[in-house]
Amino acid sequence: MTPDRWTSGDAELTSALRALYAAPADDGYWNALEARILAHVARGEVSLSWWSELAEMARPGLVAAAGLILAASMALAHSRQLEVTNAYASVISPAPSSIEPATRAASVGDGDAAVHFLISR
Amino acid sequence: MLATIAPFPPYTMPSPAEGMTTERAIVVAAQRGSDDAFSALVRIHQRRAYAIVRAIVLSHEDAEDAVQEGFLHAHRALDRFRPDQPFGAWLYRIMANAALDLVRRRKVRVAEELPESIPMPFRDPAESGELRQRLQEALTHLTARQRAVIVMHDVEGYTHGEIGRTLGIPEGTARSDLHHARAALRKLLQNLRSSS
């Protein structure tokens, strides 16, 4: 038996294959299949258009959501920046109560300024 | 869109040259949205489409599912088809892919019996029942592509080149698949054939 071609002994196998894979011969079957194919295509296109519409509706929603997220992020960043600025300001700038005696001390005289400042602390 | 399809006149087979022109006109009409034209394309190609997918899947029911799915894919991709190309080759490639997809989705391959409504040349169980049963079982041991190649070649009479184009594989691969499929079937059916 040659490995790459059917021999006469394989004719039986070939005819069994043909029998197994024989397509329906009845025209009624094909008419029914045609109707089912067209119905399947119609259903498929309807569901596709439904999804497309949903996708189209979802697109502006997604853009709006992205805008909201961006605005919220910016507001959060801004408020954090303010917090940091205020924290720095509270650390750097001297307390108002300590300035007043110091300035009053200056009016008393330059020589006593240091003493007045130390007393006021 | 296709839910209400108007009756289309029975299709009469044109001559080959006339057929190409006619089919091109039908394809163009279908591309422009004619449901009647698309149903004419289904009518023209469904038998061959069935034969191709049947070669790949394991059961008649799966073949019907794959044909329906293939035509749905074709309908969706129709506007991307260039009418100067042979429509059949394009469609059958889609069909083969639909069938291969279906085979991939099936986790358990169970070859089902063909329904009684389908005419079978073999009717005498004593004559061919066992061979048919064993053959059906043996075919489940082949890969989907090997099965497709052997059925398309030996049952449908496709050339290696046509098989390669339809399945999207080189011609040499189609030849090699055929060789391996035959060798596998011979081995699997060895006992049966030597005892008969």
3D architecture notes:
By secondary structure, chain A is an all-alpha fold. Chain A has one domain (9-120). Chain A has helices at residues 11-20, 27-92, 96-108, 110-120. In chain A, 83% of the residues lie in helices and 0% in strands. Chain B is an all-alpha fold. Chain B folds into two domains: 22-107, Orthogonal Bundle (Rna Polymerase Sigma Factor, Chain: A); 118-196, Arc Repressor Mutant, subunit A (Orthogonal Bundle). Chain B is 68% helix and 0% strand. The longest helix of chain B is centred in the N-terminal third of the chain and has 22 residues, at 35-56. The relative contact order of chain B is 0.10.
Per-chain topology:
The complex is a heterodimer of chains A (about 120) and B (about 200).
Chain A: H1 11-20, H2 27-92, H3 96-108, H4 110-120
Chain B: H1 16-31, H2 35-56, H3 60-77, H4 87-105, H5 125-139, H6 144-154, H7 160-167, H8 171-188, H9 190-195
Helix pairs in contact in B: 1-2, 2-3, 2-4, 2-6, 3-4, 6-8, 7-8
Throw out a few tags for this protein.
heterodimer, A: 121 residues, mainly alpha, B: 196 residues, Rna Polymerase Sigma Factor, Chain: A, Arc Repressor Mutant, subunit A, 2 domains, elongated
- Under CATH at level 1, the class of the largest domain in chain B stands as Mainly Alpha
State the total count of DSSP E strands of chain A: 0
Termini separation of chain B: 56 Å
Helix content of chain B: 55-70%
Distance between the termini of chain A: 113 Å
CATH architectural designation of the largest domain in chain B: Orthogonal Bundle
Number of helices of chain B: 9
Estimated share of beta-strand residues of chain A: under 5%
What is the strand content of chain B?
under 5%
Most strands sheet of chain A: none
Could you tell me which chain pair has the largest interface and how many residues each side has?
A: A-B, 36 and 47 residues
Structural class of chain A: mainly alpha
Order of helices and strands of chain B: HHHHHHHHH
Q: What name goes with the CATH superfamily of the largest domain in chain B?
A: RNA polymerase sigma factor, region 2, helix turn helix motif
